[in-house]
Predict the structure of Threonylcarbamoyl-AMP synthase.
Amino acid sequence: MSIISTDISKAVALLTAEDIVAIPTETVYGLAGNIYSEKAIKAIFETKNRPFFNPLIVHIPSINTLPNIVAYIPKKAQLLAEAFWPGPITLVLKKKANIPDLITGGKDTVAVRIPNHTTTLELLNQLEFPLAAPSANPFSSISPTTAQHVETYFKDNIKMVLDGGACTSGIESTIIGFENDEPIIYRLGSTALEDIEAVVGRIEIKNKKEISPDAPGMLERHYAPKTKTILTTNIKEAIEKYANKRIGVLNFKSQIESNSIKLQIVLSKKGDMAEAASKLYESLHQLDQHHLDVIIAERFPDYGLGKSINDRLQRATA
Ligand code: TXA
Ligand code: MG
């Protein structure tokens, strides 16, 4: 029997009983549990096979509940929350003392966001506690953007995927930390850098080495298909190089003519980066199931969501 269901009250019952449930968000599906339940949080780490030092994102239903989670809100964090929540921005702030170490990897900060998905907002509003939820994929694999992706990964490990349709943004939230009250990008994501800068001014991006092993999303190899994947600005040249192989191609907007290509996916024929982002992981899942020798992915223009897409492709190919 399928574990996929649209029954919110069933999700409420399972989560209240300290069980874990996969939930939809606008970015990717998350594997969720009560932040105050050690049993649930341990189950999240074990199911994902995720190292315990990697902290989780706390999902809350409204900005009013933020002071239950964090001890202090810098002015620019308040501005960002008001501008983008509910939405794909995660703020890393000083935690309240009662937030368990298991959620934060023992750090004194906690990551928090309000997801922009009606089903999950309804769920959060019915619960007495926030939900910790990392992306619902085994550690370092491609993130799930449909309930079916989650089912494929975890049908033997969890009781329920709350179905909220395909994720509309399709890549993870942008993560922003604060140093001396100034925002710093920890992970590029579904909110474009330029949109963030329009609210808080120029913002620094910390590269993964500076942020240490804190963040799996910042590890060099992550979001990775099992098939060898390469990233290039010159698809035609790459196709020639792999001429005798089974080739898959992931293009931004234009189709390439070549008999060597076994499967080709164009992310957005009209060249819309938001559309491309929403299809990115689904396309990688598809290509990965096609028994190819190599996936050749086209590098995006380095601005707007293109920057975030390149970040994910880079890690998928590392
Ligand atoms: O869009 C998203 O953010 C999705 C959906 C489900 O909300 N969640 C997600 O979670 O991408 P996850 O666990 O795959 O990535 C969370 C990232 C990790 O890289 C983690 O290390 C970082 O957030 N993080 C969490 N708490 C942190 C903290 N206190 N300091 C620095 N990084 C933190
Ligand atoms: Mg993840």
About this structure: The mean pLDDT is 94. The chain has two domains: 4-218, 229-317. The pocket of magnesium ion (ligand 2) is lined by residues 134-135, 143, 216-217 (CB under 6 Å).
